Amino acid sequence: MKFYKIIILGLMVIAFSSCKKYLNVVPDNIATIDNAFTLRNQAEKYLFTCYSFLPRLGDITNPTFMGSGELVTPNPGISPMDGYQNVINLAYGGQNAVAPIGNAWDGANGAKSYYTAIRHCNIFLENIVKVPDMQTSERNKWIAEVKFLKAYYHLSLLKMYGPIPVIRKNLPISASVEEVRVKREPVDSVVNYVVQTLDEAIPDLPIEISNQAKELGRVTKPIALTIKAQTLVLAASPLFNGNPDYVNFKNKDGQALFNSTVDNKKWKKAADACKAAIDVCHEAANAIHYFEKPFNMSTISDATTYCMNVRSTITEEWNNETIWGFSNSKGATGTLQNMCTPRNDVQQTSGALLAASINAAEMFYTRNGVPIEEDKNWDFAGRFTKLKTIPQSESSLLNPNYVTSSFNMDREYRFYADLVFDRSSLFGFGRTNETNLLYVSTIWGQGNSTGSNSRFSCTGYWPKKLINYKNSGSSGNYNIVSYVWPAIRLASLYLLYAESLNEAEGPSAEAYKWIDLVRLRAGLKGVVESWANYAKNPSKPTTKEGFRSIVHQETMIELMFEGENYWNVRRWKKLDVMNRPIKGWDVFQTTTENFYRLKTIFTPNYSYRDFLFPIMEIDLSVNPNLVQNPKW
């Protein structure tokens, strides 16, 4: 028993040491919990400690950026991305149970410990009542914020590990050995706890942040309702709803950790939660974001406007589509952009390594708003073998009179907003006049290519979506305008609602409405109209299975390069997507004809074990009541 108490005390010491940037409230050598809650200002620092464990989603070290196969770098053996090997190893199938990558259970290998975060939340909730100089309304708001954070950290662990121990209260130092040896709880129990805790928090949260100078990023009612919706969608999805792969996954006492039968009523609960979140977001003035041209910018084309609608949704911080922005990632988005920017007239020192895969590029629709393999007017068979000369009419997007792959032609505007590649425009960088656009020429040895193997795109594409058009520079000095990361966008909530409605009741005008609002921002017609006019199977949106496929693809397109599709393909159980060979062009070739030859960079070999993260092996020894995730 003494051994386990020492472990708990040691973890508490480590946790307090790691948070001393926030928790600096008492003289040296007499730090106690009571001191931290003697006055409001001291308690507020502890509140910020609870917030300090939020993930840095806009950081290149976020493993979900590359884990989905949308972004890729040269393999770990040759990549010069020093300091980012964990995320590269995860993308190349390097996850393991000895030292797991992104280990949020313990707080290692690129992740913070969410269980340490939960411990701090429990300490706060147990002690905030002691603070004498607080108004009741403010105390209730802080309690609601920390309850939300506690639910969010449990949800984050659920997404990663599936069934987890729920820490409702911190164990006392007098806890017995068996009390310390917590066990995993069934998925449905974890979901119910998260939802219950969010429901307790929601009434005391503000609908909007009133003191924006100091509190932007703090939790609001729209954020909490959206997280509740995400939780219930996750619970209704195939990974957690009657998953036959985990029917024998049990605790050591025989308790089943996954429900064994599909419950379609969960989709109705998810749909209701999505609609409730949307209504409150609208009340808080959230709306789909459209680019507003600055007064000093020259007239831009419709094509550029549609592209900027998409790009500025990410890079224009605190725009009206952002439900929750993560300020903790603002500095990190500078590094992220540097890794996404090809060498050009401004960024002259090197090209960047963070490449977009052809797998990601294939996901985008044709200009007609349907998948490339379904458009009856688009040459799908010749997409990788035919070259075309770019016409003058495409000058807003591509460099006229040059040759490119037919794969890059006649695509939807999000293709050109999200990707930069040879002979495509890079709007911004001080070049916003469409008579003098910046085009990149990235074929090896030409114009803006690196001409070396130190910094380059291994596919021929970079994720332009993540690059702020306000970046500037000269003579090799690249000045990057960082931005707050939009952790939750209204568009993603609309798509969750459309998905939930379809799964609960099948296709409907209401489901089409919300997906069509997302498509409209990208310059596309509605789903039913687009398929009726251009698709080989015009009735696809009218069936539950067909519309499911459409919603999944629309979601992956809209959230491309934001890290969310890593979780989506897992909750959908799309092993076929996870195991597609990662492809790119033959980027070391010096002629257009040879450059546009398809090459396989890496072939993943995922199985259903990769739907969940492994628990570190030593944790199973320390706590014999824990069971490992299947096949790890």
Question: How does the SSE layout of this entry go?
Answer:
Blueprint: H1 2-18, H2 33-36, H3 40-51, H4 64-67, E1 71-72, H5 85-91, H6 114-127, H7 136-161, H8 177-180, H9 187-201, H10 212-215, H11 221-236, H12 265-283, H13 302-315, E2 322-326, H14 332-340, E3 355-356, H15 358-363, E4 387-389, E5 403-405, H16 413-418, E6 419-421, E7 461-463, E8 472-474, E9 477-479, E10 485-489, H17 490-505, H18 509-521, H19 527-534, H20 544-558, H21 565-571, H22 575-578, E11 582-585, H23 592-595, E12 598-602, H24 617-622
Helix pairs in contact: 3-6, 6-7, 7-9, 7-11, 9-11, 11-12, 12-17, 17-18, 17-20
Give a summary of the structure in a few sentences.
The chain is built from 24 helices and twelve strands.
